UniProtKB/TrEMBL annotation:
The Out at first C-terminal domain, residue ranges: 177-245
Protein name as catalogued: Out at first protein homolog
Stored InterPro entries: Oaf, Oaf_C, OAF_N
Family the UniProt entry places it in: Belongs to the OAF family.
Transmembrane spans: none
Originating organism: Rhabdornis inornatus
Matches recorded under PANTHER family: OUT AT FIRST, OUT AT FIRST PROTEIN HOMOLOG
Signal peptide (UniProt feature, chain positions): none
């Protein structure tokens, strides 16, 4: 099994440069990357290929003057599809070239808007993915997924008792989006957006011809992508969602 760690410098939408670290472990068949967003949040994406699970974690700096703790942690767990990100063994073979270069993704993939309508019980989540225990330890009370992903995992035999469906707007007509909710202590639907600025999303193949004229293809590099996500989810009080305000 191979393990590798790379650091790449990437440009954020506002123009500032941040460092992203990428780790691959082909033995555990997982890949993770971490970067600091423009607003100071630390964003991590972990792709667990074995369990077909991807885990987003955001550590958001709290607003101490508004009664929040130093940071707030969120975890969003969704199904990992094939061809979203290059396989762990390919990632583990990547070598650090030109570490000073500031990279920009070759392809911008469309923004994905996800309605996270199910809460995940941290103490039971290890069988969904063993990585949840480490990645989401600070977000024990704030791990979210989607009903459609839960259906997929249940069919694979995951224990359903770790999932709890959250209140929906259809159940509670008075449930507003947090940005429109005037009362800080009322429940509402929070929105959080994050972006993975640079990640190896596809392998590139080149063709070669041998002396006899036979053509064969071989891996000859990677294609990099950028992708943004917006997650909507229920919070018991707006105080847990202070970034989502009309600006």
């Amino acid at each position: 099994a191979a393990r590798a760690e790379l650091r790449v410098r990437v440009r954020l939408p506002g123009g500032q440069v941040t460092e992203e670290s990428l780790q691959a472990d082909s033995g555990a068949d997982c890949v993770s990357l971490e970067l600091r967003a423009a607003d100071g949040a630390l964003v991590t994406l972990t792709a667990d290929f074995r369990q077909e699970v991807k885990i987003f974690r955001a550590l958001i700096l709290g607003e101490l003057e508004r009664g929040q703790s130093q940071f707030q942690a969120l975890c969003f767990v969704t199904r990992l599809h094939r061809n979203e990100i290059i396989p762990s063994e390919s990632m583990a073979k990547l070598r650090q070239k030109n570490p000073r270069t500031v990279r920009q993704a070759e392809e911008v993939r469309g923004l994905e808007h996800l309605s996270m309508d199910v809460a995940v019980n941290f103490s039971k989540a290890a069988q969904l993915s063993s990585h949840i225990h480490n990645v989401c330890a600070e977000a024990k009370e704030a791990i979210y997924t989607r009903e459609e992903d839960v259906k997929f995992w249940l069919e694979k035999g995951v224990d359903g008792s770790m999932f709890e469906v959250l209140p929906q707007g259809s159940d509670l007509p008075e449930l507003q989006r947090c940005r429109h909710c005037p009362d800080r202590w009322k429940p509402c639907i929070c929105s959080y957006s994050l972006s993975i600025e640079w990640y190896p999303c596809m392998l590139k193949y080149c063709k070669s011809r041998d002396a006899g004229g036979k053509v064969s293809s071989y891996k000859c590099g990677i294609r990099s992508c950028q992708k943004g996500y917006t997650f909507d989810y229920y919070v018991p009080q707006k105080q847990l969602c202070l970034w989502d305000e009309e600006t």
